[in-house]
Design a protein that fits this description.
By secondary structure, the chain is α+β, with helices and mostly antiparallel strands. It has helices at residues 2-22, 143-146, 175-180; strands at residues 44-46, 65-76, 82-94, 122-127, 134-135, 151-156, 161-170, 185-196.
Length: 197
């Protein structure tokens, strides 16, 4: 009897393992072919180019002046929405000529960074379309102090354009400070950036 029970147990184990090993379900498969990922583009154009030269020029600026220096048109020529910001870089102050009122100016010379205009004048950027937003909207720094500061502008969708004007601002200061800047010039770059949102 013991032998019969052992044989039955062995048969049961073999049937179970065969059943588990040969158990099958229906299956099928399908293929999606030719998958492609294409990178979008972020391309900022300034006046239709990658960069513009001498777009903002202001001559004969004087204390108390708020004069238009010029306009550029920014365009998101890419396929991805981006956020525009700008910074003033590469500031150079030139003395040019030391006139009589600058007699006390101990920096008179022909080298870079000897003029005083960059420490007095300001550059204010503004949209040239409604709602005429100014960047920055308040607390405009002098050109020297603004160098390297990040100023937020706005978002640009693919294909959108934004005309930006620059005003040169020279607030009234003290006569001695203002006189030191007679005939001086300040040259700087405005670098616009477009970052992916």
């Amino acid at each position: 009897m013991k032998r019969i029970l052992t044989s039955l147990l062995i048969v049961a184990i073999l049937v179970t393992s065969v059943t588990v090993g040969t158990h099958a379900l229906f299956t099928d498969s399908g293929t999606v072919e030719g998958n492609t990922f294409t990178a979008g583009t972020l391309d900022l154009k300034v006046n239709g180019q990658d960069s513009a030269t001498s777009s903002y020029t202001l001559t004969n600026i004087k204390p108390g002046a708020w004069d238009l220096a010029g306009q550029v048109v920014l365009k998101n020529d890419g396929t991805v929405k981006g956020h525009v910001w700008y910074e003033i870089t590469n500031v150079r102050n030139y003395e040019n000529t030391c006139l009589g009122p600058e007699a006390d100016d101990n920096t008179c010379g022909t080298g870079i960074h000897q003029g005083e205009l960059g420490s007095l004048a300001k550059a204010s950027l503004q949209e040239n379309v409604a709602p005429w937003t100014r960047y920055p909207s308040s607390n405009i720094l002098t050109i020297n102090a603004a160098e390297g500061v990040r100023y937020e502008v706005e978002d640009l969708n693919p294909g959108d354009t934004l005309p930006i004007v620059v005003y040169g601002v020279w607030p009234n200061g003290s006569a001695s400070d203002d006189n030191m800047a007679q005939s001086d010039s300040v040259v700087f770059d405005v670098v616009f950036h477009l970052d992916q949102i």
